[in-house]
Amino acid sequence: MNRKLNMEKISGYGVFFVLIGMLVLFSFIAPHFLEVNNFFNVSRQICTLGIVSVGMTIVMITGGIDLSVGYQISLINVTCAWLMVNAGVGTVPAILTGLLMGTGIGLLNGIIIVKSGVAPLIVTLAIMNTLNGISYIISKGIPIFGFPKNFSVFGQGNFLGMPISLIIMVIVFILGAVLLRKVYIGKYFYAIGSNEEAAKLSGISVGRLKILAYTICGLLSGVGAILLLSRTNSGLSSNGAGFEFNVITACVLGGVSSNGGKGTVFGALVGVLIVGFLDNGLLLMDVNQYTQLVVKGLLMLIAVIYDTQMRKKSEVVKKVKSINANNEV
Amino acid sequence: MGDNILELRDITKLYPGVKALDHVSISFRRGEVHALVGENGAGKSTLIKTVSGAIEPTEGRICVEGREFEALTPALSRENGIAIVYQEFTLVPVLTAAENIFLGEFLRKGIFSCQREMSELAKKLFQRLNIQMDPDVKVGELTTGYQQIVEIAKAVLKNAKILIMDEPSAPLTNREVEAMFQIVETLKAEGVTIIYISHRLEEIFRLADRVSVLRDGQYIATKAIQDTDKDDLVRLMVGRTLKETYPERNFTQKETVLEVNHLTGNGVKNISFTLKKGEILGFGGLVGAGRTELAALLFGSAKIKSGEIILRGKKFDPNSPNAAIRNGICLVPEDRKQQGLILEMTVQENLTMAVRKKLSKRGIMRESDSREFSEKYVKDLTIRTPGIFQRVKNLSGGNQQKVVLGKWLGVDPEILIFDEPTRGIDVGAKQEIYKIMTEIVRQGKSIIMISSDMEELLGMSDRMVMLSKGRQTGMLEKEEFTQERVLNYISEVVEDE
């Protein structure tokens, strides 16, 4: 048992070492990487990724997945931008609308998945394309800009010398950790992802909790979307394109299992930092966008293979253990 | 009768074509350990499922502490203090023992769960059951025995007045069984009624106050434990006339096809036997005795740890099912719907599954050959199907099994391993499967037959090997076959060295 615990710990640290190694490497080969300004930059850039990753972590722990987060962001960006620019809506109502939209889409995802019994991958894939279409219909593919001045505070402003968006992200991470570790519902999320049948037989309302997980994920997509819009100052349908890929890569890198029942928000945070600094480092080295895609694709592949191998290994360990137990004196 | 906590009155359960329970009436006294015995298919599981509320009896009444019910639901059953320790555990591996015990009803302050309080209470519960266990360890890291203790603790926490244990000792080691016995005794001393189902008669004599026997869905007798003995129980369990007839065969071959020496791995240990040409070698044992696991070793779907297999005089190491099939060993699996067939495919597609290459020319399947091949087997095996393009899922169990057989006969194997060849097949089709098996061995092929059906084992086998808990406990020649001997061997408590 002790050996296994150690193995798990080391594999947890493994990703951390990858992050450190990457930071060291980039500080030597990527120009301006080590500058304070760059770190502030990165921290602003990864906020949306980080916040949405917390939601994704929760969904993945219950054994699900949400592919629609990227286009949720697009649609919310475009809608809020349209409201502020074309309908003259103020900053606060626009933000509230954005958060409400995210929550609603998440709720919808959850209800469809639970009530229809269709695989989350397929449901959210369909929703993802639908949202993409709607966002183009609203924006006609043209960027919408010219927001009220105070709107940019969230993505660009500082509070006590710290980027506001970074503070929001830290708060979301702390809330996520408290939810998963201290709130009873968090443990039920793990129970559902690990052994749904057992959860059901123990009287847990599995369906309702799954819907809740997708709803939280949607709400956090809304928060992330507002920060992104506020930072880029431009509502564009392509803002969230492919974003789900970064989120899932970060989660899997951070040890959130694609099979459910396993993962922490701090693991996800490490994954987010890896993806964030990788993007930044490659950009500083002037590696083109398409090469970045190749690198990230391979990275995700390695992470999932590693995850599956670890699971297989622990199953073998368990089997051998039970045989040994059967044969022990 | 005031001290009867649970009375079952005239419980009947009909399934299409089967009477699973036939007017069964049993009373359980408060605070007793009441064992329920019977062969596979005697109706024990069906009976306890009516008590747990998992199924609704067709007729009869269930009376819990004087309250009468026509049927219970799982929730109603729980409310009335009935708890079940399931054979397959309902635990969440990533949560701790304490969290599992409280799963579904976490202690909490507002929205926060009270880890420490739950842990404390679980610890007290373990102490009450006289168990040393850390409530904060993750269940996935516990051995099967401790997992079961968590499962029992979960039931006890709900203040169960009646605890039903279905084959609780099956997955446990001897030491773990001992710990489990102590828990049962502790609970009994606290006045909990325990309904204990087990095939292992030794355990029943050790634990039970009374024992009830079921046979073929009928109630046979209830006896106080001091008024009965093992032979008496076995007689009550098996006392019936044979319903099947088995084809006559004269097995005289002496040539050895397969020799297995000290085979170990996949949960079985030190198995040795020989298989002769044209022989049906029966494998008897209880569920979990390791027979299917042994078959997996021979078929190359599990890793061999030590020991050797000698096939036709040459050492043979089946490292994949593909290798086994190429060397003439085929497996007709226990779960034909999952492992034997592709239900959505047609009869022809399933029949030709293993011989695709043979029926193809330069990688392209020749339709006419495939059709001819399929029609031959449909005719030879009398597979009743509207046509070879019928989807296999629409066939009856017996005909599905024939399709699995046809698939393998096409490869012309030397050794066929049958895992529960007639499970879930009606009587008429059983006879046909037996005839086919007889025909197979008449052609000089050999059969290894794993079966939990006592009559089938006795009727079809030429020799028999008995397993218990992954060990070989006995070997019988045809003239030594009796139900009592087999039962004794398969329920033998294997002493750990």
Please specify the SSE layout and strand pairing.
The complex is a heterodimer of chains A (329) and B (497).
Chain A: H1 2-29, H2 36-61, H3 69-86, H4 91-116, H5 120-139, E1 144-145, H6 153-156, E2 158-159, E3 162-163, H7 164-181, H8 184-194, H9 196-201, H10 206-232, E4 234-235, H11 243-253, H12 265-284, H13 289-327
Helix pairs in contact in A: 1-12, 2-7, 2-8, 2-10, 2-11, 2-12, 3-4, 3-5, 3-10, 4-10, 7-8, 8-10, 11-12, 11-13
Chain B: E1 4-15, E2 18-29, E3 33-37, H1 44-52, E4 59-64, E5 67-69, H2 74-79, E6 82-85, H3 97-101, E7 108-109, E8 112-113, H4 115-128, H5 144-157, E9 162-166, H6 174-189, E10 193-197, H7 201-207, E11 210-215, E12 218-224, H8 230-238, E13 256-265, E14 268-276, E15 280-284, H9 291-298, E16 306-311, E17 314-316, H10 321-326, E18 329-332, H11 336-340, H12 347-351, E19 360-361, E20 364-365, H13 367-380, H14 397-409, E21 415-419, H15 427-442, E22 446-450, H16 454-460, E23 463-468, E24 471-477, H17 483-490
Parallel strand pairs in B: 3-10, 3-11, 6-9, 9-10, 15-22, 15-23, 18-21, 21-22
Antiparallel strand pairs in B: 1-2, 1-4, 4-5, 7-8, 11-12, 13-14, 13-16, 16-17, 19-20, 23-24
As a percent range, the share of strand residues of chain A is under 5%
Shape of chain A: globular
- Give the beta-strand count of chain B: 24
End-to-end CA span of chain B: 47 Å
Give the tally of structural domains of chain B: 2
Provide the helix percentage of chain B.
25-40%
- Give Rg of chain A in angstroms: 21 Å
Structure in a nutshell:
The complex is a heterodimer of chains A (329) and B (497). Chain A is an all-alpha fold and 329 residues long. Chain A contains 13 helices and four strands.
